[in-house]
Design brief:
2 domains; transcription; HTH_TetR; transcription regulation; TetR/AcrR family transcriptional regulator
């Protein structure tokens, strides 16, 4: 049976989310336990399990709600500028220590829950920009927006994950400059 939203204390929920982020940063994902989160948040672990089935979904919600400040994207109408802003934001977020720890934990968790990795706010932002551009004729009509978003974000996430070179705003810009011409209307 799904949890009863009316019984969910917002104070307890926020304490749990904050505790999860603090503890994953301090302990790492492998040592993070629901018991530790419950103790840190001063709630019963059954409260956590009633709302989240495991630490992966708990961390995902904590990240979405309390992670890097969710900004309203500024759409200038210039696809290059807007995509570069989205990729630069991804680079900036990946550079934050807490975000790095949570993303690596979610990546680990995604082996069993692929939805966790696929519902990132940054991907949604990039896909939104691409959909608008395709509808307005700025991209070829046959462009698969989901694939195009992966082409843009994939190199950023790969460089972050493998640490093959510095992850910089300049790198994000270079990715946009290389990928976008292949997606544009001819």
């Amino acid at each position: 049976m799904p949890p009863d939203a009316a019984r969910r204390s917002d104070r307890s929920r926020r304490a749990i989310l904050a505790a999860a982020l603090e503890l994953v940063e301090a302990l790492g994902y492998s040592r993070l336990t629901i018991e530790a989160v419950a103790g840190h948040a001063r709630v019963g672990k059954q409260t956590i399990y009633r709302w989240w089935p495991s630490k992966g979904p708990l961390l995902f919600e904590a990240f979405v709600e309390l992670g890097p400040a969710q900004r309203d994207p500024v759409h200038t109408g210039d696809l290059v500028v807007d995509l570069k802003a989205e990729l630069r934001a991804a680079v900036e977020e990946l550079g934050e220590r807490r975000f790095d720890q949570v993303c690596r934990a979610l990546l680990h968790e995604s082996r069993t829950d692929l939805v966790t990795l696929m519902l990132t706010p940054r991907r949604v932002g990039v896909e939104g920009l691409l959909q608008v551009a395709r509808r307005s004729g700025g991209l070829r009509p046959d462009v698969d927006v989901a694939v195009a978003a992966e082409l843009l974000l994939g190199p950023v996430y790969q460089r972050w994950l493998l640490r093959t070179a510095p992850l910089t705003a300049g790198y994000a810009d270079a990715v946009v400059d290389l990928v976008l011409p292949a997606l544009r209307s001819r």
